[in-house]
């Protein structure tokens, strides 16, 4: 994460833990650090490593009030690359670890992360449901004879809803707050799942899918914000990264439920409806959690709520989120520090760039990089491979629908494994090497799928191997790194609107590819459609090599000054 004018470059050689000088009198507001010396929180992203400075533990924040009995001054824990893992580095890390308890962290992470799991579940369940809903024997309806256009709409309508939900979140999220936004998302999940599960006709089915999709859009916006704003700073980046694993777990769960219901009449209803009880757990859990303390203070700073009342509410929320053992002084200091940071950040919003500034200068370069990555992430066929995994396997020789669904579960497990590899290796290996290697693997897998349908149709293991290669390559490249790059690359002035446009690009292209895959496969044939995706993957590889920079080890200011200028 960024630091704002705290250190000269010469401090990179230091290996000692830096402490504030001993006070000569009682601490007062006048002795606190000015806003420009504080590190402003950036929500919903993992903190990149700093080039010369590495913060002990997770990288948020650099300034962290130590929880001592005497209520000492904030300490700045700094570790350099040459410092290694010994001495002061370990001591600082140990102090950071002692500053929070894991027990109160679990539920404030788990319930928002269920929003991501339910998004992933929709992807996995749709894979089997598209087989069940159009089967004359298994559909259980008299409208099972769906055209390729209608089948594409079944698969993609939740993504169109997610696109609308993202637009809605941009307008109402700060008004509702993260907690109520996630409760609303859970309610839409419930309604959408039930409407879809009990749909008497195709139109009602699509309405239910769209409602569920709006819930996806709200959840994907609110979950990372709530987790970021309520997690202890030392593990904030780790928890946000683990949310990606919940999405993959949801995909795997969707595959599993699909395999259980694929041979049952009307099984698609259970596949879609199973998400309702999970959403109920999410809704109840989010309702019992406190509001984000930072959101409460933001409303007060904006003049939309009483400062004193919301400070008390924020302290009470922090007490719940940090555990009852946290002292009143530590909680009060945290709230006061957050108010100073929010005032500094909010003061800059008046000069925040408008939408059009994203297409100018450094912001245009950033949008080309970030928007290009999330666009290629989708148009290389990722939605199609996931949503139609069971169908691909069925045509690859696994004639029984249940066989295809079971192999899809294995693919989901492999996806989970490779996601874990990416989460733990991206800061060590770097962004570009993983992107180049992963996108190269994606291109190879797509050409293998094209070759299977063209000349290797007697070797079904080729299709399975190609799908595994695609999933593994995607999960170490486009999957996690695209969004990491999006969160890093935009200048502070246009970061909020730039990321918003990147989200819209992602959901829009996802829905388009998912919708177009079935009719395009019918028009071009599977061999040609996968060959087309392979060509696009080669173009995306060229894009990564020529356009995408390496941001590993750079602060946000260094990215803006060294890469975007």
TrEMBL record:
Protein location: Membrane
Membrane topology category: Multi-pass membrane protein
Ranges for domain Major facilitator superfamily (MFS) profile: 108-552
This protein's UniProt keywords: Membrane, Transmembrane, Transmembrane helix, Transport
Chief site of localization: membrane
SUPFAM superfamilies according to UniProt: MFS general substrate transporter (SSF103473)
Disordered: annotated segments: 17-38
A cellular-component GO term for this protein: membrane
Transmembrane segments annotated in the record for this chain: 99-123, 143-170, 182-204, 210-228, 240-258, 270-289, 407-426, 433-453, 459-486, 498-517, 529-548
Keyword set includes Flavoprotein: no
Biological process terms in GO annotation: D-glucose transmembrane transport
One MF term in the entry's GO annotations: transmembrane transporter activity
Top-level taxonomic group: Eukaryota
PANTHER family: D-XYLOSE-PROTON SYMPORTER-LIKE 2 (PTHR48023), D-XYLOSE-PROTON SYMPORTER-LIKE 3, CHLOROPLASTIC (PTHR48023:SF6)
Protein family per UniProt: Belongs to the major facilitator superfamily. Sugar transporter (TC 2.A.1.1) family.
Record's protein name: Major facilitator superfamily (MFS) profile domain-containing protein
Lineage of origin: Eukaryota, Viridiplantae, Streptophyta, Embryophyta, Tracheophyta
């Amino acid at each position: 994460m960024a630091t704002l004018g705290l250190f000269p470059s010469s401090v990179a050689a230091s290996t000692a833990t830096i402490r504030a000088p001993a006070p000569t009198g009682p601490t007062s507001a006048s002795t606190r650090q000015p806003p420009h010396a504080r590190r402003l929180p950036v929500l919903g992203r993992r903190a990149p490593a700093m080039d010369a400075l590495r913060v002990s533990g997770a990288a948020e924040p650099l300034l962290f009030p130590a929880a001592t009995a005497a209520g000492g001054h904030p300490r700045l824990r700094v570790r350099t690359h040459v410092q290694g893992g010994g001495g002061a580095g370990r001591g600082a890390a140990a102090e950071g670890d002692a500053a929070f308890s894991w027990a109160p962290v679990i539920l404030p992470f788990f319930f928002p992360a269920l929003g991501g799991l339910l998004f992933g579940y929709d992807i996995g369940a749709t894979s089997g449901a598209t087989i069940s809903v159009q089967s004359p024997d298994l559909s259980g309806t008299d409208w099972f004879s769906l055209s390729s256009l209608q089948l594409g709409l079944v698969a993609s309508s939740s993504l169109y809803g997610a696109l609308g939900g993202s637009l809605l979140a941009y307008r109402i999220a700060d008004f509702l707050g993260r907690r109520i936004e996630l409760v609303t998302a859970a309610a839409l999940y419930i309604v959408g799942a039930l409407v879809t599960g009990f749909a008497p006709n195709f139109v009602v089915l699509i309405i239910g899918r769209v409602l569920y999709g709006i819930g996806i859009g709200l959840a994907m916006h609110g979950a990372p914000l709530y987790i970021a704003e309520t997690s202890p700073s030392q593990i904030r980046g780790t928890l946000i990264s683990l949310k990606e694993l919940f999405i993959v777990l949801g995909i795997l769960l969707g595959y599993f439920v699909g395999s259980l219901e694929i041979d049952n009449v009307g099984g698609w209803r259970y596949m879609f409806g199973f998400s309702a009880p999970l959403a109920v757990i999410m809704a109840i859990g989010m309702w019992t959690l406190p509001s984000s303390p930072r959101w409460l203070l933001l409303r007060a700073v904006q003049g939309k709520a009483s400062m004193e009342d919301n400070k008390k509410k924020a302290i009470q929320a922090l007490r719940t989120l940090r555990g009852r053992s946290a002292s009143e002084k530590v909680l009060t200091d945290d709230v006061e520090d957050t108010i100073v940071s929010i005032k500094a950040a909010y003061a800059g919003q008046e000069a925040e760039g408008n939408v059009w500034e994203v297409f100018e200068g450094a912001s245009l370069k950033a949008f080309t990089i970030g928007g290009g990555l999330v666009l290629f992430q989708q148009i290389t066929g990722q939605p199609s491979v996931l949503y139609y995994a069971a169908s691909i396997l069925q045509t690859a020789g696994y004639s029984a629908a249940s066989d295809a669904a079971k192999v899809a579960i294995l693919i989901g497990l492999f996806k989970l494994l490779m996601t874990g590899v990416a989460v733990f290796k991206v800061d060590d290996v770097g962004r570009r090497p993983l992107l180049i290697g992963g996108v190269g693997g994606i291109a190879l897998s797509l050409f293998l799928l094209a070759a299977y349908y063209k000349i290797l149709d007697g070797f079904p293991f080729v299709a399975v191997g190609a799908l595994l290669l695609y999933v593994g390559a995607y999960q170490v490249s486009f999957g996690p790194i695209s969004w990491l790059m999006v969160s890093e690359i935009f200048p502070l002035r246009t970061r909020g609107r730039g990321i918003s446009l990147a989200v819209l690009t992602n959901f829009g292209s996802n829905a388009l590819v998912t919708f177009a895959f079935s009719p395009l496969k019918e028009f071009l044939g599977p061999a040609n459609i996968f060959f087309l995706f392979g060509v696009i993957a080669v173009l995306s590889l060229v894009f990564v090599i020529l356009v995408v920079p390496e941001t590993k080890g750079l602060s946000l200011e260094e990215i803006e000054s060294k890469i975007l200028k």
